[in-house]
Amino acid sequence: MNLIRTLAMARKELIHILRDPRSLGIVVVMPVTLMLLFGYGVNLDLKQTPIYVCDQDGSQQSQDLLKRFQASPYFHVVRVVEKTSQIAQALDSGEAKMGVVIPWNFSRLLSVGGKAKVQALVDASDDNTANVLIGYTQAVVQGYGTSVQLDWLARRGIGLQSAPVSVQTRTWYNENLESSAFIIPGVLALVMSVIGAFLTSLTIAREWERGSMEQLISTPVSAMEIMLGKLTPYFVLGMIDVVLCAALAIFWFHVPFRGSYVTLLLCSALFMVAVLSMGFFISVVAKNQFAASQIALIATFLPAFLLSGFLFAIEQMPPVLQAITRIFPARYYVSILKKIFLKGTPAALLMSDLIPLGIITVLLAVVATRAFHKRLE
Amino acid sequence: MWGRIWQMLIKEFIQVVRDKRTRFVLIGPPIIQMLIFGYAATYEIRNVSTVVLDQDHSQQSRELVSRFKTSPYFRVERELTDARVMHQLVDQGHATIAIEIDAGFAARLQKGELAPVQVIVDATNSNTALIASGYVSQITLAFARATQSARMGRIAPQLVERMPSVELEQRPWYNPEFRSRWFFVPGVIGSLTLLLVITLTAFAVVREREIGTLEQIMVTPIRPGEFILGKTLPFFLIGMFDVSLIGAVGTFWFQVPFQGNVGVLLVGAVLFILCMLGVGLLISTISSTQQQAMVTAFFFIMPAITFSGFGFPIATMPQWLQTMTYLSPLRYFLVVLRGTYLKGVGMEILWPQMAAMAALSFGLLTVAILRFHKAVD
């Protein structure tokens, strides 16, 4: 292997990239776009959910309960209606996510010491929203029920605590339960998958498609030099993006960063090598750019998005799928990112992720080199 | 004129179907993505790993712990005796929830004082943390109420019977068992169609330009309008084929019920695919290489999917983003998909979505065709 030839290759590739302003643009614009998309667009914490209330009772008590819904930051009482059919319509059209029905005998039941039932009709087509919503509704209704009971007891001369048990929750690592702190570190993995696998596999597939790869091979440059030379510029771009993304995450979105910058860079470099090898391998296997882009999508972007724990918790997937996630480097990288950002885990404790990531990276690099050699023969 | 379009159509079909890889790309990736999405995308929470530190060892504390043990949402992995071990387990990510009951819990309950339960939640995944801590509160509150009424029974047994209470009755509509899959599968059908139709259309036109065959076609008697029709009609048909294919996987493999009218869904699909053809054509007019087309498509696809309500509720986005979601055709198609799949609603409710998609497709196609004429001249 000759360093000068490799560098010459790298230089040629770099000129290619620099000459196409849009490709270059993607290097800067894409990470920023993805960061903003996920930073602002993904928020699973509900506030001001539109609801309808159907007050069939129209009593002092039902008004009290209504006021509690109106005062809650989680609900936005869009309309108070008279018929349940109006709630059905609002749920069908998506105007409201929930309808609360206070039955006509609500205050009467309360005055005679009966069980008054409040109905919550929830649009559960989005199960997560529905689930959280029911939790909040439960809290409002129970809070009201307890205060009714305490009043009732107080009038009979019995003083009782509202709830004898209190839950003191401490949320660690992401104290305010910010969706962005949980999502944004993982965006780095997405960005690098796009740069490493998408861009790389496409540019190299183009060389095959146009036949310029054959021209390259006929020069004295060896296969190893071609590969290294082609990948180095993308490696550098990927690392620039890591710094850019980390800076955005920390200074713009104020995601806590508790670990070490050096560890972050080293782990990112390792992951970058893994995705670059993958991208190179894809370009060797896929003959044209369209096929390359589709394979890159399935082999790198999708796993980074779905199977990495970026958004969806791996522990909640079926066991077979959990096993599949172990093949993809993104899983380990996302786990490392979250640990470095939110937990500040030192490198020594990252080994359970770093070792598999290292092994997979080496394997990918070997497979890519082999495939390339074979294709050349 | 129709003869020429027909010839063009045949040529396109041959081009798509001839290549083994492209043939595979039309069927393989959509199905793979559908399967992965169907299994991986879930916000449901089951068996969250939990550790318990019971320092009270009383009947009451054991009773509370056993409520967690029998809950399907938690899996009590270990019962500890040392707070340091508990913190370590959370730190290393082995436990997501740690419940600590201090000594004196039962004594406080006995005296009618407020008895605290301390909970540590690993919030690196803020969504899991949010929902899990909701369940923790629910279980603890249920325990508190049971304790409360037992206490009442001791203090004033004659009153318990007559005390009023308020209960919440939940009626989850459209998805009574809160299955995440029912929510995601219709969304995946829309997203995959978007991905496929846009990339196919953009790539097909740009490839002709890149290889230089576009000029050859333009010197034949075919007119630009005929060319566009002949070029896009196959992709329209392929898009319809893929919607049906992925829809079939959703219905027959994932058993997502289809409550509505197939005709309504098809009308929605036609309008949506027209929008996507417009976007694809538009991208092809502003890209000169396939890589550029891919990059440009990516910049459209990512926001279009994120802002569609596909997995992240639109209601929780900042206002300016919510306004932007109206530009994503997928937003409307998702309402149609979920409306027909889960809610079983028809045109009387979905017409605004249809009208929006019709307007968008008209606008997109007009601009695309005008630009295309210009690019050819």
Please describe what this structure looks like.
The complex is a heterodimer of chains A (377) and B (377). Chain A has 377 residues and is an alpha/beta fold. Chain A has 2 domains: 3-42 and 178-376, no CATH class; 49-155, abc type-2 transporter like domain (abc type-2 transporter like fold). Helices cover 68% and strands 10% of the residues of chain A. Chain A contains 14 helices and 5 strands. Chain A has helices at 3-19, 21-41, 60-71, 84-93, 106-111, 127-155, 179-210, 212-218, 223-252, 261-285, 289-306, 319-325, 329-343, 351-376, and strands at 49-55, 75-81, 98-102, 115-123, 165-172. In chain A, strands 2-1-3-4 form a 4-stranded mixed β-sheet, sandwiched between helices. In chain A, α9 packs across α10. The longest helix of chain A is centred in the middle third of the chain and has 32 residues, at 179-210. The two termini of chain A are 18 Å apart. Chain B is an alpha/beta fold. Chain B folds into 2 domains: 2-42 and 180-376, no CATH class; 48-160, abc type-2 transporter like domain (abc type-2 transporter like fold), CATH 3.40.1710.10. Chain B contains 15 helices and 5 strands. In chain B, α3 (59-70) links the parallel β1 (48-54) and β2 (74-80). In chain B, α8 packs antiparallel against α12. Chain B is elongated. At the A-B interface, α2, α4, α5, β4 and α6 of A face α2, β4, α6, β5 and α8 of B. β4 of chain A pairs parallel with β5 of chain B, so a sheet runs across the interface.
Salient structural properties:
heterodimer, A: 377 residues, alpha/beta, abc type-2 transporter like fold, 4-stranded mixed β-sheet, 68% helix, elongated, B: 377 residues, 2 domains, 15 helices, 5 strands, 69% helix
What is the compact description of this entry?
In chain A, 68% of the residues lie in helices and 10% in strands.
CA(first)-CA(last) distance of chain B? 20 Å
- The proportion of residues in beta strands of chain B is 5-15%
Largest interface: A-B, 120 and 117 residues
Strand order of the largest sheet of chain B: 2-1-3-4
Mean pLDDT of chain A: 86
- Assembly of the depicted chains: heterodimer
Q: Shape of chain A from CA axes?
A: elongated
Percent range for helical residues of chain A? Answer: 55-70%
Structural class of chain A: alpha/beta
Instruction: Note poorly predicted spans of chain A.
Output: none
* Spatial strand order of the main sheet of chain A: 2-1-3-4
User: Low-confidence spans of chain B: pLDDT under 50, at least 5 residues?
Assistant: none
How many beta strands in the DSSP annotation of chain A?
5
Order of helices and strands of chain B: HHEHEHEHEHHEHHHHHHHH
Mean pLDDT across every amino acid position of chain B: 86
Output the structural class of chain B: alpha/beta
Largest sheet of chain A: 4 strands, mixed
As a whole number of angstroms, the C-alpha radius of gyration of chain A is 29 Å
The beta-strand count of chain B equals 5
